[in-house]
UniProtKB/TrEMBL annotation:
Taxonomic superkingdom: Bacteria
Lineage of the organism: Bacteria, Bacillati, Bacillota, Bacilli, Bacillales
Pfam families recorded: Xan_ur_permease (PF00860)
Keyword Iron applies: no
GO cellular component: plasma membrane
Major localization class: membrane
Listed GO MF terms: xanthine transmembrane transporter activity
Record-given protein name: Xanthine permease
Entry's transmembrane regions: 7-33, 39-57, 69-87, 93-112, 119-139, 159-176, 183-206, 226-252, 307-328, 334-354, 366-386, 392-415
UniProt-annotated location(s): Cell membrane
Organism: Paenibacillus terrae
Keyword terms, alphabetized: Cell membrane, Membrane, Transmembrane, Transmembrane helix, Transport
């Protein structure tokens, strides 16, 4: 049984692993819509608060809601473009009305989606988990260099910070035991931030400017308004997220050595639908299972749901106390990037471990794995290749996890059916006879 202090440290480590991704979405959306500093502060606080509530809903579990897997929920990047587009052409109230109704759609559609899980055999599961890890690596490398678009992108000091953070994590994993080893990523982040502070790269101005208390308010940006086109757009966004979350659930199952049942995925998706509705009500964002934290589970081997429960509680508190939340933002991107390398690499390695159970000498299996991984990684590295396609296709294909998953599922259906027909069509004369 973990003590309260250990639970807090392990939970906080998970929060740090997903924090950059969690606050990036409100910052991008708020910046694009030219929100005031007060509105931006609310958006970040409301997002963290709802992230925590969504995670608690997922981890607690009831008869119909919650996967009861150690999964953290965060806002989906797939929704960034559509929210900006809807709010720019109408207003934020219309965007949030669409988010609420799309959440209801996810709750109702989850059981039907669950019936499609038979199209996820081991070769598809292994390919999808591998794609999740590989598609996140470019994100890690962007952070290693200082963050996409930063003025010091690629500066040697950023690369040095990432290297220091990575080396500390590796050394702690190699030399420490027990609890210290399980918080190696947190230790690495702390050490990297201390080095960055000594180099003059840590600034506390955002902490001084942040308010002490902020309470999420329903319909902060006005009562929800509804547009059929906006609702359809957000439903498509959340269908994409459902596919992505399925891959995360399967990856977590592999990380904790547990077979993930159809009911768990359906309940998990229902819980995500409820979280999306809350995101619309509190004027936050649609939520999905965060793949960033899968690697941390694989690395630390800490499988307790209580740790994720603690992480959810910490996010709720950070959402209510913006000054504490701002304190966590002082960690430089390069430090986060150094930690991401080992975490995201661990996810890819887990996928490869699943694929090792598949007979890749069988041509159909080899083609499914090879093509889906290539398509998924290609989409993640070069998403702009789909810029000339219609918005619906662009939304699907620019997400490496989704494009790779669809490729694996379709190839599995086609190649398995072809193989079955080939076996069925063999005549007696074609079967080698014993002499």
């Amino acid at each position: 049984m973990l003590s309260k202090q250990k639970l807090f440290a392990l939970g906080f480590q998970h929060v740090m692993a997903m924090y950059a991704g969690a606050i990036a979405v409100p910052l991008i959306v708020g910046g694009a819509l030219h929100l005031t500093p007060a509105q931006m502060a609310y958006l970040v606080a409301a997002d963290l608060f709802t992230c925590g509530i969504a995670t608690l809903l997922q981890i607690m579990g009831t008869r119909f809601f919650g996967s009861r897997l150690p999964v953290i929920l965060g806002c989906t990047f797939t929704a960034v473009g559509p929210i900006i587009a809807i709010a720019s052409t109408s207003n934020l109230a219309t965007a949030y009305g669409a988010i609420i109704l799309s959440g209801i759609f996810v709750v109702l559609a989850a059981p039907l989606y669950g019936k499609l899980l038979r199209f996820f055999p081991t070769v598809v599961t292994g390919s999808v988990v591998t794609i999740i890890g590989l598609s996140l690596i470019p994100v890690a490398m962007n952070n290693v260099a200082g963050g996409q678009g930063s003025a010091d992108f690629g500066q040697p000091r950023n690369l040095l910070l990432a290297l220091v953070t990575l080396l500390v994590i590796l050394l702690v994993n190699r030399l420490a035991k027990g609890f210290l080893r399980s918080i190696s990523v947190l230790i690495g982040l702390f050490a990297g931030t201390v080095v960055a502070y000594a180099m003059g790269m840590v600034h506390f101005a955002p902490v001084a400017q942040a308010s002490w208390v902020s309470v999420a308010q329903p319909f902060y940006f006005g009562k929800p308004e509804f547009s059929i086109m906006a609702v359809c757009t957000m439903i498509i966004v959340n269908i994409v997220s459902m596919v992505e979350s399925t891959g995360v659930y399967l990856a977590v199952g592999k990380a904790i050595d547990q077979k993930v049942e159809q009911k768990q995925i359906v309940n998990g998706l229902r819980s995500e639908g409820l979280a999306i509705m809350l995101g619309g009500i509190f004027n936050a964002f649609p939520y999905t299972a965060f793949s960033q934290n899968v690697g941390l589970i694989s690395l630390t081997r800490v499988k307790s749901r209580n740790v994720i429960f603690a992480a959810g509680g910490i996010m709720v508190v950070l959402g209510l106390l913006p000054k504490l939340a701002a304190l966590t933002t002082v960690i430089p991107n390069a430090v986060l990037g150094g930690a991401m390398i080992v975490m995201f690499g661990s996810v890819a390695a887990s996928g490869m471990s699943i694929l090792s159970e598949v007979d890749l000498r069988k041509e159909s299996n080899l083609l499914i794995a090879a093509c889906s991984i290539a398509v998924g990684l290609g989409s993640a590295v070069l998403p702009q290749m789909f810029d000339q396609l219609p918005s619906f296709a662009k939304m699907l294909l620019q997400n490496g996890i989704v494009s790779g998953s669809i490729t694996a599922i379709v190839l599995n259906i086609v190649l398995t059916k072809k193989q079955a027909e080939s076996v069925k069509g063999v005549t007696v004369s074609e079967v080698p006879q014993k002499v």
